[in-house]
Amino acid sequence: MDFLDSLKDIKKQMQNDVKKEEKSDNEDELKQIFLKEKKLRDEFSEFIASEDIKKI
Length: 56
Description:
The protein contains one helix and no strands. With about 55 residues, the protein is mostly helical.
């Protein structure tokens, strides 16, 4: 294996690491979004129940 092959392997490994990090960051962000949505739904449901608003 020559120097250029080593560099290519290192580049591939670094690209894979970056993809894994991006994926985990996106998963964390999605989890936070869904948690916020759930919280807002719960709050809205409580508001509707307490205000005696009928659903259409």
